[in-house]
Amino acid sequence: MSIAILGAGAFGTALAVALGQDRPVTLWGRDVQALRVTRQTPRLPGVFLPDGVTVTADLERALDAAALLLSMPMQSLMGFAETIRRPLTGKALVACCKGIDLTTLQGPSAILGARWPEATPAILTGPSFAADIARGLPTALTLACADDVLGQRLQRELSTQTLRLYRSTDVIGAELGGALKNVIAIACGVTIGAGLGDSARAALMTRGFAEMARYARHRGADPATLAGLSGLGDLALTCTSDLSRNYRFGLSIGRKEGFDSSVTVEGAATARALAAIASDHGLSLPITQAVAALVESRATVDAVLHDLLSRPLKEETR
After folding, report:
1. Which run of H or of E encompasses 179?
2. Using one digit for the tens of pLDDT, what is the confidence trace for 14-57?
């Protein structure tokens, strides 16, 4: 199966490094002349592309591959899809982005499925930092595809000695785990940034996970999927590591500091999208709605904390 990675950012390049060790891989990006010449990117210091990776700015050439891994920010996916005019019949479209589109309120599988019904969407998600993958450190991810036969093939083709993929047919559950954990990571960053302590963060992670599972059930996903790599695994990573952009963004809010606007923070847009969905459907997503209020500067950290702590007492499992 020929493989092309669309998006030469840190994660797309890291995937190219991992997959290109023992098979040919095409890495596409709009501005890749320097990467083509030097075989390295400042986003991954000390890491070089293996000989098996072909770097190109020719999108049509990249689209000839049988498996297309779309590695770009979630909020860019729809716009990118609209620029491609050709059909992608029979291809596997593997979304490597995490979030909910702020305009359509859809996840990546719905966007790809609507744009190319003749192709098969899949999701690659889970606890992973680009630098770890690029350095060959052991990493485990979820590969979700509704077509289990294709899912098994993708699992074989995209696994390496250090990149281990676990298969699922619950596409919605897998993509929701990757999207919602970013929101909770922002909340945890706020908690630590505001000096509320590790105990508060642990409680917030736990109640955040309950919120993730509740929304997954609403969407018809299997809550057990959220207990796997795409949900609980990714939640543990992004809520506790300074390498997480969402966590660092939350830290800046809690500390009342500025944040580099050029850094992609998927959880910020996802929180806003989910808050709109919750309002439309009468759903209770208090942590998500609190993060959305902070992101939009509609509330202060103190006000949000007061609201969360003033909620009615309830059974833990509800």
Report:
1. helix 171-193
2. 999 999 998 999 999 999 999 999 999 998 999 999 999 999 99
Active site residues: 181
296 carries a ligand binding annotation: no
Provide the token pair at 293. Answer: 């209020």
CA of residue 114 relative to chain centroid, distance? 20
Residue with tokens 């359509």: 104
The Cα-based distances of 40 to 29, 37, 47, 49, 247 in angstroms read 14, 8, 6, 6, 27
Longest dimension (CA), the chain: 60
Asked if 106 and 81 count as a contact pair (C-beta separation under 8 A), the reply is no
Q: Which of 89, 60, 43 shows the shortest CA–CA distance to 264?
A: 43
Alpha carbons 295 and 274: distance in angstroms, whole number = 13
Residue 317 Cα distances to 43, 144, 201, 309, 314, angstroms: 42, 27, 19, 18, 9
- Please check if 266 is assigned to a binding site: yes
Q: What is the pTM of this model?
A: 0.94
128 labelled binding-site residue? yes
